[in-house]
Amino acid sequence: MTGRATEARRPRTLAFQLITRLAAVALLVIAVQSVLIAWREAADPVERIEGVLEKEIAVLSGYLEPDGQIRLPESLAQRYRDYPDDYAFAVFGPDTRIIAPINQHLIHTPPLTEDARLREWLTSREELRGPVWSSGRMVERGGTVYWIAAAMRDDPADLYLSVILDRLMEEIGVILLPLLLILLLATVWTVRGSLKPLQRAAAEAAAVDGRTEGARIAETRLPAEVHSLVRAVNGALERMDRSLAFQREFTANVAHELRTPLAILTLQLDTLPAGEATRRLKADAGGMVRLVEQLLKVAQLEALQFKPGDRVELGEVARDVTALLAPLAIRDGKELAFEDQEAGAVHGHADAIAAALRNLVENALRVSPPGATVTVRAGPGPRLSVADQGPGIPREIRERVFERFWTADRNGTSLGLGLFIVKKTMEAHEGGIGITDGEAGGAVFTLSFPRPPLPGPSLP
């Protein structure tokens, strides 16, 4: 439901808004032009009647046969039968003889002079119910010239509507509509081309993160209307860089300054007589040393950068970390096993990945009881996993264990930064970390890395 609501609130693009508004204007122009054409046709009765008769003669001409007969389809013939005092037609031969009349009482013989045969004609005659309008046209069939005459008094079948539709198709469908369509397509092409610099600037802004120092949006080839906005964004990015740099330097300096007094304190504790109080003091001092080291690691992660060509063999990293921490496991009466399942290489920073894996292994050794086995696996695929035999992690807190300074750990000695460092390391590598239940109890932490891109073909 939340995803749908977010999708519904997503703002429309500027291109979409411009195109829809231009389309609305085009539709408005078509509507206004249609009303004007209809009003013009309806306002002039003579022009309207002439248009109806002209179209009727064109229809009748299509059914004229060489013998002068007109055989209409039933749908058209029925109209003449339904309105005998309103519609009529006739065919005149070369000798002015009527050949095929329908409702002949409305037809009167036209002046078939030589000049009249070369033009259309329109006449009217007064009768009791009003004028009867008639028109004719010369049509040739089989080498014989015929005259087709059509007449009408009223228009009960509303034939003028089809005439208006013809006018609309002629003036709008043939001329105006294609022109508006061309203008709309040209506008779409122009708008999209004009917005490409904005899309490029948006892509550059989206690529900026806290680890990319000095990232700016290019101010070249931008419209003047947005140039000031991009300049303001670049100013904000510059201030963000200074702020982040100050925070990283401050954290690193504080941690560095604490290392010397903590080292002196540890040496002085070694001179105290053995006892429970001395043991607790040494444990507290050791915790402070680990905290300082982790603060330094967090500061380093904030500035972590690696080149596109930096590749890390996950199997080698896991093997080295296992060998480094094996003495610690032996000292505590535990076993540390390594399994190589062809993890392959990934794009990343070897030291940062090793530090993250070391955090997971140290935590696993800390929570596993004596005699237990902690297993480090490399693979299958671009992943590393650490399986312990401790009490496990309840599902309801699996997301919270990665929060900074979250101290509700499984044995009460965690400083709340180890798993946070692991999470930040995976974010820097665009990967992820997950927690599942182990087959023999305990928890399994898995680091998943994106697959590196396939190498392209070599150039000759």
Structure description:
This protein has 460 residues and is α+β, with helices and mostly antiparallel strands. It folds into 4 domains: 14-42 and 165-200; 44-157, 2-Layer Sandwich (Beta-Lactamase); 210-303, Helix Hairpins; 306-448, Heat Shock Protein 90 (2-Layer Sandwich), CATH 3.30.565. Helix content is 51%, strand content 15%. The protein is built from 10 helices and 11 strands. It has helices at residues 2-9, 14-43, 45-62, 74-82, 159-206, 224-270, 276-302, 314-331, 350-367, 418-428; strands spanning 87-92, 121-127, 130-141, 144-152, 311-313, 335-340, 345-347, 373-378, 383-387, 432-437, 443-448. A 5-stranded mixed beta sheet has the order 6-8-9-11-10, with helices on one face. Helix 2 runs antiparallel to helix 5, helix 3 packs across helix 5 (159-206) and helix 8 runs parallel beside helix 9 (350-367). The protein is rod-shaped and about 145 Å long. The two termini are 54 Å apart.
